C-alpha cells in the first residue's frame, strides 16, 4: 500500500495538477461511492442467490433511481449489467492513481450510467404509444411558447432586464424572473441568457434555428446564436409578489427641452408614482420623472445626468398639483424614480477582435473590489476582462473572460492577485486597485466563509481562524502593493474609495489608461448599473469589534509602510480613512 500512497503524494505536490485533481475528485466522489456499493452487491449476488427480486444489486440500482424493479426482472439485462460492473472493478496497477486513470475511470462510470438509462428507456418503449416522443421536463413552464425570433446583437429586442446563468439556466427560471418583474415576455438565447420585455421581436426566425439546449435543463431549448426562444409570461400564482422595486433618485431641475430628453411622456390627472413607474416600465425605460400630472420616461444622459440633485422641498409644490391648468409656469423641478427596468445601453460585451498589443493587469489584494472593477470596465468598454484564475461562479454569472486563457490577449485586461518580480514583469502595464486593509480583510474573510455574496457568521469571526487569517493576510496586503510599485512597468493607482465616491471621473481615467474611448452616455449607463451582480446586500452590522488591539497595531504598521512607498514614487498617498485607528 505504501507505493500507491507515495505516488499520490508526489502527484499532489505538482501544483499545476492540483486544480484538476480537486475537480476530478469532486466529480468522482458520488460515482466511486456507487461503485463500492455495487461491488458489495455483486459479491453477495455471486454466492448463489438465484432469486432476482431478492438480489442486493436490484435493491441498489432501484434505490439510486437508475432502474425500476420491472427492468431488473429481465435476465439478459441483469447479466449484462453485472458484466459492466465487473469491467470497472479491476483496473491494472500501472494505471491507478494517475490523471489518465481518473479521467478514464470517470468516463467509464458515465458511460455505464448511460447504458443503464438507455436500456431502461428501450425496455419501457413497448409500453408507450407508437410515434410518441417524450421530452424531459425538469421544471414547470409558466408561460406559453410564442416562437423563435431573430435578435439584433446591437440592441436587444427584449431589453427590460437581462440575466445570465451559464450553468443553471432553465426555461422556468427565466420565465419566473421576468414574471416577478411583471414583464409580458421572456426570451432565452445562447442556452444561458435571459431577456425580459413587453414587446415582441419583429423578425420571426425558423424554428430549427433555435437549437441551443438550456444549460440547466436537458431537452429544453433556450434560443440559439442571435436567436430568441420567446415565451409569453403568465401571471404568478396567488400569493407570489412581483418585485416592482421603485427607487427614489432625488429631486432635479428639469432639462431645457423635456420632449427631446425624454422619449415617452404621459399627462394624467391625479397621477401617482406607481402609475408613472408602471407606464415607463411598460415602455422599457429605467427612469420615471414625475411632476404634478406630468410623467416622462427616459435614460440618464448628458442633458440629464442625475448628478445635481436639490432639496426635496423644491418638488413638493409641483407634486401636489393635480391638473395641467394648475401647473406653475415658473416651476421646473421633478422627482425622479428608478424603475425595475435595466439600463441595457451598456450591457453588450465581446472579446477583442484582434490580440491586444499591450498586456494589462487589473491587480489588487483579494477583497479589494476587483470583481466590481471588472464589472465597471466591461460595461464601460464593451469588452470582456480576463482572469489569471478560473472562478466558475463568476463565469456562470456572465464574466465569460474567466474561461479564456489569461494570456490569450483577447480581453481588455486580466485580473490578478499575484505579486513578486516574475509575475509582475509579465505584464506591460497595470491598474493597481488599493482598498482600506480593514475593509479588504473583512471582505475576503466573508468570501472565504460564505462565497461572493454571503457573510461569515459570528462563530467564524470569534474562532481561531480569524486571528490566524489577519496575521497571514495583513502582511500580504502590504507586500502586494509594494511589489507592484517596485516592479510594475507602467502603473495607474486607483483607490477603491475614490472610485466609489467619484465613479465617472475615475472610471474615465481607467478607460483612458486602457487606450479606449467611450461616450458620456455609456458612462452614465454604467453609473446607473454600478452595483452589478456581486454586491453584498447591505453592510451586515456586527455587535462586536472583529479587530483586537493587537490586530490594529499590526495593520496600522503596514498602512504606514504602504503610505511611505507611495510617496517615494511621487504618487498620491492613501486616503485619510486608511490612517491608523
Write the layout of secondary structure elements.
Layout: H1 2-13, H2 18-45, H3 56-63, H4 69-72, H5 75-87, H6 99-124, E1 144-150, E2 161-164, H7 171-180, E3 185-189, E4 193-197, E5 213-214, E6 217-221, E7 227-232, E8 247-253, H8 258-261, E9 264-267, H9 273-282, E10 287-291, E11 294-298, H10 313-319, E12 333-338, E13 360-364, H11 370-381, E14 386-387, H12 392-396, E15 414-416, H13 421-425, E16 429-434, H14 437-450, H15 458-461, H16 465-487, E17 491-495, H17 496-501, H18 503-513, H19 520-528, H20 549-568
Parallel strand pairs: 13-15, 13-16, 14-15, 16-17
Antiparallel strand pairs: 1-7, 2-4, 3-4, 3-7, 5-6, 8-12, 9-11, 10-11, 10-12
Family: Belongs to the WSCD family.
GO molecular function: sulfotransferase activity
Keywords: Repeat
Explain what you see.
- By secondary structure, the protein is α+β, with helices and mostly antiparallel strands.
- The protein has helices at residues 2-13, 18-45, 56-63, 69-72, 75-87, 99-124, 171-180, 258-261, 273-282, 313-319, 370-381, 392-396, 421-425, 437-450, 458-461, 465-487, 496-501, 503-513, 520-528, 549-568; strands at residues 144-150, 161-164, 185-189, 193-197, 213-214, 217-221, 227-232, 247-253, 264-267, 287-291, 294-298, 333-338, 360-364, 386-387, 414-416, 429-434, 491-495.
- The strands form 4 sheets. The protein has a 5-stranded antiparallel β-sheet, covered by helices on one side. It has a 5-stranded antiparallel β-sheet with strand order 8-12-10-11-9.
- The chain starts with a helix and ends in a 13-residue tail after the last helix.
- The model is unreliable at 37-139, 237-241 and 323-327 (pLDDT under 50).
Amino acid at each position: 500500500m505504501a507505493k500507491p500512497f507515495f505516488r499520490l503524494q508526489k502527484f499532489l505536490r505538482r501544483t499545476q495538477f492540483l486544480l484538476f485533481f480537486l475537480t476530478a475528485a469532486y466529480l468522482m466522489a458520488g460515482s466511486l461511492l456507487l461503485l463500492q456499493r455495487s461491488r458489495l452487491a455483486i459479491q453477495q449476488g455471486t454466492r448463489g442467490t438465484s432469486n432476482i427480486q431478492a438480489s442486493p444489486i436490484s435493491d441498489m440500482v432501484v434505490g439510486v433511481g437508475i432502474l425500476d424493479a420491472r427492468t431488473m426482472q429481465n435476465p439478459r439485462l441483469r447479466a449484462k449489467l453485472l458484466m459492466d460492473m465487473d469491467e470497472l472493478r479491476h483496473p491494472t496497477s500501472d494505471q491507478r492513481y494517475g490523471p489518465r486513470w481518473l479521467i478514464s475511470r470517470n468516463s467509464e462510470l458515465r458511460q455505464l450510467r448511460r447504458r443503464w438509462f438507455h436500456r431502461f428507456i428501450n425496455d419501457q418503449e413497448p409500453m408507450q404509444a407508437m410515434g410518441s416522443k417524450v421530452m424531459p421536463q425538469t421544471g414547470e413552464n409558466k408561460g406559453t411558447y410564442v416562437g423563435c425570433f431573430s435578435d439584433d446583437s446591437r440592441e436587444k429586442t427584449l431589453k427590460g432586464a437581462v440575466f445570465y446563468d451559464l450553468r443553471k439556466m432553465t426555461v422556468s427560471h427565466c420565465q419566473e424572473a421576468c414574471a416577478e418583474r411583471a414583464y409580458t415576455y421572456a426570451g432565452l438565447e445562447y442556452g444561458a441568457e435571459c431577456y425580459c420585455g413587453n414587446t415582441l421581436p419583429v423578425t420571426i426566425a425558423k424554428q430549427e434555428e433555435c437549437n441551443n439546449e438550456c444549460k440547466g435543463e436537458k431537452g429544453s431549448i433556450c434560443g440559439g446564436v442571435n436567436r430568441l426562444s420567446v415565451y409569453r409570461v403568465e401571471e404568478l400564482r396567488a400569493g407570489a409578489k412581483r418585485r416592482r422595486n421603485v427607487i427614489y433618485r432625488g429631486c432635479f431641475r428639469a432639462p431645457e427641452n423635456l420632449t427631446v430628453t425624454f422619449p415617452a411622456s404621459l399627462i394624467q390627472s391625479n397621477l401617482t408614482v406607481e402609475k408613472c413607474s408602471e407606464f415607463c416600465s411598460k415602455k422599457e425605460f429605467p427612469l420615471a420623472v414625475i411632476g404634478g400630472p406630468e410623467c416622462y420616461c427616459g435614460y440618464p444622459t448628458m442633458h440629464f445626468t442625475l448628478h445635481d440633485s436639490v432639496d426635496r422641498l423644491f418638488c413638493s409644490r409641483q407634486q401636489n398639483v393635480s391638473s395641467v391648468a394648475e401647473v406653475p409656469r415658473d416651476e421646473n423641478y421633478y422627482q425622479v424614480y428608478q424603475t425595475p427596468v435595466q439600463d441595457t445601453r451598456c450591457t453588450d460585451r465581446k472579446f477583442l477582435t484582434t490580440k491586444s498589443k499591450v498586456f494589462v493587469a487589473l491587480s489588487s489584494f483579494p477583497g479589494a473590489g476587483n470583481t466590481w472593477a471588472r464589472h465597471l470596465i466591461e460595461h464601460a468598454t464593451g469588452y470582456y476582462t480576463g482572469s489569471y484564475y478560473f472562478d466558475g461562479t463568476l463565469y456562470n454569472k456572465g464574466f465569460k473572460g474567466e474561461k479564456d486563457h489569461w494570456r490569450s490577449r483577447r480581453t481588455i485586461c486580466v485580473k490578478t492577485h499575484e505579486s513578486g518580480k516574475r509575475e509582475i514583469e509579465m505584464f506591460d502595464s497595470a491598474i493597481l486597485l488599493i482598498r482600506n486593509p480593514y475593509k479588504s480583510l473583512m471582505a475576503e474573510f466573508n468570501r472565504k466563509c460564505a462565497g461572493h455574496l454571503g457573510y461569515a457568521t459570528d462563530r467564524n469571526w470569534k474562532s481561531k481562524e480569524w486571528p490566524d487569517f489577519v496575521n497571514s493576510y495583513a502582511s500580504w496586503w502590504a507586500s502586494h502593493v509594494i511589489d507592484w510599485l517596485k516592479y510594475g512597468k507602467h502603473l495607474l493607482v486607483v483607490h477603491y474609495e475614490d472610485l466609489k465616491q467619484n465613479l465617472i471621473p475615475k472610471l474615465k481615467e481607467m478607460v483612458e489608461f486602457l487606450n479606449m474611448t467611450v461616450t458620456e452616455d455609456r458612462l452614465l449607463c454604467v453609473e446607473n448599473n454600478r452595483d452589478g451582480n456581486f454586491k453584498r446586500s447591505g453592510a451586515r452590522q456586527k455587535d462586536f469589534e472583529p479587530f483586537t488591539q493587537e490586530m490594529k497595531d499590526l495593520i496600522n504598521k503596514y498602512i504606514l509602510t504602504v503610505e511611505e512607498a507611495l510617496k517615494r514614487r511621487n504618487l498620491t498617498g492613501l486616503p485619510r480613512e486608511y490612517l491608523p485607528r
